[in-house]
Structure formats: structure tokens, C-alpha cells
Amino acid sequence: MLRAPERRDRAAFVELLSSPEVHTYLGGPRSRDELQRELPEVPEQWPGSLVVELDGAMIGHVLLRRATGHRRPAAAGKADLGYLFLPQAWGSGYATEACAAALGWLSDALPGEPVVLTTQSANTASMRLAAKLGFTEVERFEAWGAEQWLGVRRAPVTSA
Ligand SMILES: CC(C)(COP(=O)(O)OP(=O)(O)OC[C@H]1O[C@@H](n2cnc3c(N)ncnc32)[C@H](O)[C@@H]1OP(=O)(O)O)[C@@H](O)C(=O)NCCC(=O)NCCS
After folding, report:
1. Which Pfam families does the record cross-reference, listed alphabetically (predicted)?
2. Among 18, 66, 71, 159, which one has the highest count of C-beta atoms within 10 angstroms of its own C-beta?
3. Which residue's CA is minimally distant from atom 41 of ligand 1?
4. Across the beta sheet with 2-3, what order do the strands follow?
């Protein structure tokens, strides 16, 4: 299930954002203590922030937002997809299913809207996920000390 974040997700957000495994290709985790202190009662509450719930518990976070400050002109201002899942939920297809549903929701809301995605090219699980979701390469660039992959997913052309 995809839904807005709630108060009961706070512990899972602390888990997700402090996990070294989750942040291997994301510049490192935040400290658990700092998160416990600083996360709001309902974390990540903004339009396009989607909690992925399985059997009543949060397993991941899907993010759809405007890449207003993106450093690459090809991505600036476009809808941008991000995803983070708890390691115990990896390898079962949940990220593919959740992201495909989020993209379907976006294309219903904003027909024809392209979506961009940036990931480290060394992040093979994320690269496989991007390909499965229909993203194709725009360019690679160096940032944050690593090669980054910028992909785009163009909305399918529909005839009336
Ligand atoms: C990126 C990330 C979400 C990918 O997670 P994932 O578990 O590999 O992706 P999925 O949930 O779609 O699972 C796909 C895997 O499940 C397997 N799988 C098992 N059962 C499946 C099923 N019923 N349907 C689909 N896939 C299934 C697939 O074969 C695939 O494994 P493979 O990659 O070894 O071939 C995860 O690695 C993550 O959260 N990483 C940390 C955060 C991060 O780096 N995010 C990127 C920011 S841009």
C-alpha cells in the first residue's frame, strides 16, 4: 500500500535514515540519536512523499518531487523519483511494484509528464530498478565524489 506518512511510521523512518546499508550510495547515514531528536512527529509529510506499507508496517519510502535545484539542466524543474527501502524488504520486488504504482499515479495526475531519476552508477540494485521502471540514460556526471547516472522516463504517448 502507498499512503501518506503517519505518526506510527517514525521508528521506521529512524531505521531507514540511520541505516548504513541503505546509505551506501547516498553519502552515508544520519545518526540515530540526531534523528530521534530532530525528526518531526510525522516525518516527511509533504505532497509526493509516499510510505510503502506491507502487512501493516512501513517497509520503504517513495519520493516524487520537483527537482527545482537539480544541478543538471536536463533534470532541473522536472518531476523526480527517489526510493529507499529497508534492507529486510530487498529482493522481493516490492520497490518495483511500489515505484511503478507511484509513477502510474503521477501519470494519471499529470498526463505526459516526464520523470527523472538520479542514482550512483555503482548502485547496481537501483540501476536495475530504474531500467525495469522504463528509465533510459540521459547522461552520466561526477558529483558527491562518484559517478552519477541521470535517467528519464517519458510518458507513453496515448491516442484519444
Ligand atoms: C534500490 C532498492 C530500492 C532496490 O531494491 P530491490 O529489492 O533490489 O528492488 P525490488 O524490491 O524491486 O526487488 C527486485 C529484486 O527482487 C527479486 N524478486 C523476487 N521476487 C520478485 C517478484 N515477485 N517480483 C519482482 N521481483 C522479485 C528480483 O529478481 C530482483 O532481484 P535482482 O535485482 O537480484 O534481480 C534498494 O536496494 C534500496 O533501498 N537501496 C538503498 C536506497 C538507495 O540506494 N536508493 C537509490 C536512491 S536513487
Report:
1. Acetyltransf_3
2. 18
3. 22
4. 2-3, 49-54, 57-66, 79-85, 115-120, 146-153, 136-143
* Cell, residue 122: 555503482
The answer to whether residue 142 sits within a structural domain is no
Residue 116 pLDDT exceeds 60: yes
Flag whether 116 is in a domain: no
What pLDDT was estimated at residue 155? 78
Taking the centre of ligand 1 as the mean of its atom positions, its distance from the CA of residue 123, in whole angstroms, is: 11
Out of 85, 99, 119, 135, mutate this one to test ligand 1's pocket (max ligand atoms within 8 Å of CB): namely 85
What 8-state DSSP symbol labels residue 92?
A: S
Instruction: Pick the residue whose CA is nearest to atom 9 on ligand 1.
Output: 95
142 C-alpha to ligand 1 centroid (Å): 24
What are the strands, taking DSSP E only, across 22-91? Answer: 49-54, 57-66, 79-85
Cell of 52: 510503502
